[in-house]
């Protein structure tokens, strides 16, 4: 359990850089997400082939994993759209609602009862987002896109949790990226029609940033997440990832001086989100200690 939480924290640190890359990369959110998912899938394929860990799976399994990859790709599009229509800080804070959506979606998908404690903890996060939304009208489009992004991210995490019990982490991650890329490709012409761009080819600097984003903040990050999901629930992982805004906002303040754009309602909302994370971590650790004590008496 301790090892799982260490891996989870490393994943959170890496996740903190995704918003920064979203600002650095100049292509629109659709192309950014499309390039990211393909580059990550190809990198994973090359790494597994070179280390002789590449596994073949049945087409039915690939189709199932591809749906998970589509959730991921769509989550990225709305996530980067949120950043580009507001700023990095607002975009990453909105992702904190993934815990709220997981508390609702997971029981429905997995056919289990709603957990009251999960809902109550998630409502703190929801209240934090509501404070920012209500008192700062400048970012309402970005916040709306961010809320949709968090719902799609929750669906990805729940689907990935189910895959983690059937496939190795690297296998699930690679096929999710490649399958998601295949699923997104037919949608890109439609996306380009509504959101036209001057060129489809990224600049050399954008390509460099995309490669860093694809390897460190995608391949390494999602492999760690998949490994963690074998020991920790999707709800806990999603809620713990709410710490991502803390790292990202610090970087955004240092690099882009976003603190000049943020009002008191943002910081109050962020405080509520951090409180929900602390309470959830304490709840999980207490439950694990209780479970270990019961197991020790048998």
Q: Describe it for me?
A:
Helices cover 79% and strands 0% of the residues. The protein has 298 residues and is mostly helical. α4 (59-85) crosses α9, α5 (88-94) runs antiparallel to α13 and α6 (98-110) runs antiparallel to α7. The chain starts with a helix and ends with a helix. The relative contact order is 0.20. The model is unreliable at 294-298 (pLDDT under 50).
Provide the succession of SSEs.
Answer: HHHHHHHHHHHHHH
- For the residues shown, what is the average pLDDT? 84
Roughly how much helix do the residues carry, as a percent range? over 70%
Distance between the termini: 20 Å
What kind of assembly state do the chains in view correspond to? single chain
Low-pLDDT residue intervals, each spanning 5 or more residues: 294-298
Count of β-strands: 0
Estimated radius of gyration: 19 Å
Number of helices: 14
- What overall geometry do the principal axes of the alpha carbons give? globular
What share of residues are in beta strands?
Answer: under 5%
Structural class: mainly alpha
- Sketch the major β-sheet: none
